[in-house]
Amino acid sequence: MEKDKIDKKEHILDVAEKVFADLGYDGASTRTISGEAGVNMAMLNYYFGSKEGLFLAVFERKINSFRTLLQNISSDGSMNAWDKLDKCIDNYVERIIANNCFQKLINREVSMNKRGDLTDKIIEILMVNVYEVKRIMEEGVNNGLFHADADIPLVIATLFGTKNYIVNMPQISSLVLGHDIRDEKFMENELKPRVKTYMKRLLKAYLVKEHDNSK
Amino acid sequence: MEKDKIDKKEHILDVAEKVFADLGYDGASTRTISGEAGVNMAMLNYYFGSKEGLFLAVFERKINSFRTLLQNISSDGSMNAWDKLDKCIDNYVERIIANNCFQKLINREVSMNKRGDLTDKIIEILMVNVYEVKRIMEEGVNNGLFHADADIPLVIATLFGTKNYIVNMPQISSLVLGHDIRDEKFMENELKPRVKTYMKRLLKAYLVKEHDNSK
DNA sequence: CAAAATTAATCAAACGATTGATTAAGCGTA
DNA sequence: TACGCTTAATCAATCGTTTGATTAATTTTG
């Protein structure tokens, strides 16, 4: 049936996304992916033409969900810059930290930079989110809510970099935190709220003028 | 002569470091490395036992110098926790941001969790440095210089994560910063002091009690 | 010192294993 | 039967590694 076909392709894409994230593009062999997905090796080429086609399919499937993540927050006139940033942090932590394997995949391919066409596409997508956050922060500076000499580009590097460090190097952050961050319960009940609280307090301490230090 | 022998091994390590960084561990074949270095393929195994041995040799050569530097700072009794951290940031930025291709390599390999033996060794070596920084921060908390409720593990994620973001995704951070960070002059004269200033101000604002906010 | 013995360094060639990809035959359903 | 799906078998290419032979350097010996 048509429905089974779609479900099977989706299943392959799910598995491929995870395997690519774990092993990288080179490290993820077509045999490993097909084996993990429980399908014959030739099915990958049958459905997606080639390994690169499969990779592109994995990537493009995710594009839409990343497009609109922050835009509605940014354009909300009822919030000041800090409240928007607060909301951005909430959404980002909630959404990215939980489903992290695609982020790992993206970061690795961007840092590799040897597959030009694909890398350019990925960067273009990522920049949409980055510019959205940057715009919010600059709004805060212009409104006098944030320090005028705040280094916004580097704050962005901190916001996304801290998140990347946690999700991209789970073994290291697990050791530093004292818990396995791949544990679903710890992630949901402890790490997520903890990262939210930390990130807000950190950025507030650096960005916001005369904020309440006590809490 | 003895000197030539050493120089040759060092030359192979130099080339291997660059090729590994450009192509990744999987992407860098022993043939490419030996070809680029102008030596016979078998020399890699003769000198370093295996491809993995070569990689580890490249890795340990880089990490050792920084490790002793950190330990010297950490054990210096004449500085308080913040001054130590200040010095760590200076050294870290000066050292890592400039020579970044190796850091990209390390982060890429660690973020793949399925190459067990090699990844474990890398993590083990990296953690020495991470724990050193952690120890300094905890010292600051215990001495009452830093806020008692400071989330030290996440501060570490910020410190290393911000750096990683800048050096691992130069295309993105170049766009955010408005300059090509791969430009040597900009990197040395502007980015380095800027990151130092930012990192200290950020961590100070979050960590240190009753610091001077004005500057 | 010089010849012999030993060790270290280097090379081309080939190894078995694995890679991404393709093939032709078999399968189930319409 | 005819068609879309699935499979095992197989392809050439490349992988990291090993081999045996050869040369260069060093040490031992007479």
From TrEMBL, chains A, B:
Keyword match DNA-binding: yes
Q: Quote the DNA-binding region ranges, renumbered to this chain.
A: 29-48
UniProt xrefs under InterPro entries:
DNA-bd_HTH_TetR-type_CS, Homeodomain-like_sf, HTH-type_TetR-like_transc_reg, HTH_TetR, Tet_transcr_reg_TetR-rel_C_sf, Tscrpt_reg_YsiA_C
Gene3D superfamilies given for it? Answer: Tetracycline Repressor, domain 2
Q: Which GO molecular function, any one, fits this protein according to its record?
A: DNA binding
Top-level taxon of the source organism: Bacteria
Pfam families, per the entry: TetR_C_4 (PF08359), TetR_N (PF00440)
Q: Which UniProt keywords apply?
A: DNA-binding
**Keyword DNA-binding included in the entry's annotation:** yes
Domain HTH tetR-type residues, every copy: 6-66
PANTHER family to which the protein is assigned, alphabetical: HTH-TYPE TRANSCRIPTIONAL REPRESSOR SCO4008, TRANSCRIPTIONAL REPRESSOR
Q: Any idea what this protein is called?
A: TetR/AcrR family transcriptional regulator
- Organism listed in the record: Mucilaginibacter rubeus
